[in-house]
Protein: DNA-directed RNA polymerase subunit beta
Amino acid sequence: MADNFHKPTQFSGSRFESFKGGEDPAHISRIAHETAQALLARVRSDPNPETVERLVAYTDENGIDAVAELWSRATPRSLPGALWRIYLIRLLIRQDPETTAYMYQRGTDVAVTIDPLVAGAAVPTGPAEIIALADEILRGVFTGDFAVALDRAAAYCRVTASGCTSVADDLDLTEPVRSSELTTRALRFSTTAQEFTACARLWRSESLE
Structure:
């Protein structure tokens, strides 16, 4: 674990997966699954509000490195993989709430599905509302229906992906580089949404490990 793990780590929007290591993959996987299962079981069996709020805000004070060391290398369709991605989504939102809210609101404006309703952000969605949504989703992991929290995270990703695609289309002729970056980001959000949805389905069938 990095010596300065207690310091918040900044992530750019393009860094969804960036942690490498030379340890035994089987050992890493076992630790990831055991810690994720133990944490979730303990908190959900006794969801003390103070404990839940500490977990929600954990990366604000300690940075993302400690969470990443535990769970970032887990497969996407696993319990530790799902927890890692929810924490990372929250971090990305809090690092740039203005841009995130703009992309989400654009996605809401062009949405042809019920995803904005499933995600559940207040409308209109500004920086404060998008931060509140991130906290609500993570809080739901520990206190509510875990599958619903994953569904909300997936819906958020799909709405944001639509917003990024819409803005990318606007910039295609005038700012092609930025347009390409947003298109890549949209694809990344879409992929993450698929992973959350798969995890929700596995959780409901009691198969998410």
